[in-house]
């Protein structure tokens, strides 16, 4: 087992697959062999998450998966999670809540913090909870794809993650939007019905609108707020 004492000890391992390959299953096999239970998948249960869960279940059917439950998600997202739990009963899926309830957040920061200061809201309801969920973990998995947005074009399979001081494994970097949907339909996977109503990227309800541009599938997130990422993927 690898143990990191400090951030200086975190080294990016040599990965045996060329970055030009799409081999997500190979990446996942390598990652679970390498990190075992010190590997966590932080899943948003969007369409990439549905693909990754199916791939992960083929490699580690009792893998640990966390969903950052901001208490602000669409009801369709919670229903999707329940269906996934039933389809993969051995996976250890749990919901990580922020320490502040919505009422406590309103008391301390005012109503609808996501409108006034979305970065603070994401920090309280996503970043700190993920940090807590990753306590003791050496690596985490994310469904980032290079095609998703200009900010994600340089993501690699294995990344040093300065924000969380560990390794971020991104098996889907070379998958296109079509690859994702081809996989979902070929395997008849259940997914969030909001995808069929114009939402390619689904986050918290107050910060997610339909996206009308194929150039940036995340354009419906934080629309009009000058923000494109929740902060989980910034180093
Ligand atoms: Fe808050 Fe919006 Fe971030 Fe959700 S996506 S945590 S509502 S700012």
TrEMBL record:
Give this protein's Gene Ontology molecular function annotations. Answer: 4 iron, 4 sulfur cluster binding; adenylyl-sulfate reductase (thioredoxin) activity; metal ion binding; phosphoadenylyl-sulfate reductase (thioredoxin) activity
The record's top EC class is oxidoreductase
Keyword Lipoprotein listed: no
The record's section on Gene3D superfamilies has:
HUPs
Name its pathway. Answer: Sulfur metabolism; hydrogen sulfide biosynthesis; sulfite from sulfate
Q: How is the cofactor bound?
A: Binds 1 [4Fe-4S] cluster per subunit.
How is this protein annotated for GO cellular component?
Answer: cytoplasm
Biological process according to GO:
cysteine biosynthetic process; hydrogen sulfide biosynthetic process; sulfate assimilation, phosphoadenylyl sulfate reduction by phosphoadenylyl-sulfate reductase (thioredoxin)
Write out the residues that bind [4Fe-4S] cluster. Answer: 121-122, 204, 207
Highest taxon listed in the record's lineage:
Bacteria
Main localization category = cytoplasm
Domain (Phosphoadenosine phosphosulphate reductase) spans 39-210
Which residues does UniProt mark as catalytic?
230 (nucleophile)
Q: Which residue ranges does UniProt annotate as crossing the membrane?
A: none
Task: Give the protein name, as stated in the record.
Answer: Adenosine 5'-phosphosulfate reductase
Report the source organism: Anoxybacillus flavithermus
């Amino acid at each position: 087992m690898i143990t990191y004492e400090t951030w200086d000890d975190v080294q990016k391992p040599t990965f045996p697959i060329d970055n030009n390959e799409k081999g997500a299953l190979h990446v996942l096999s390598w990652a679970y062999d390498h990190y075992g239970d010190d590997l966590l998948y932080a899943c948003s249960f969007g369409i990439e998450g549905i693909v990754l869960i199916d791939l992960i279940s083929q490699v580690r059917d009792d893998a640990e998966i966390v969903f950052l439950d901001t208490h602000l998600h669409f009801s369709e997202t919670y229903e999707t999670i329940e269906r996934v739990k039933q389809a993969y009963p051995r996976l250890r899926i749990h919901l990580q809540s922020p320490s502040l309830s919505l009422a406590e957040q309103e008391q301390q920061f005012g109503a609808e913090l996501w409108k006034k200061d979305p970065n603070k809201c994401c920090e309280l309801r996503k970043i700190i909870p993920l940090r807590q969920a990753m306590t003791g973990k050496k690596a985490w998995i994310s469904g980032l794809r290079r095609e998703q947005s200009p900010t994600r074009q340089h993501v690699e399979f294995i990344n040093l993650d300065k924000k969380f001081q560990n390794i971020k494994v991104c098996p889907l970097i070379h998958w296109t939007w079509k690859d994702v949907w081809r996989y979902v339909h070929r395997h008849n996977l259940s997914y969030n019905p909001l995808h069929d109503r114009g939402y390619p990227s689904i986050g918290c309800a107050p910060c997610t609108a339909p996206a009308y541009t194929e150039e940036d599938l995340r354009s419906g997130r934080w629309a009009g707020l000058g923000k494109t990422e929740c902060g989980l993927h910034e180093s």
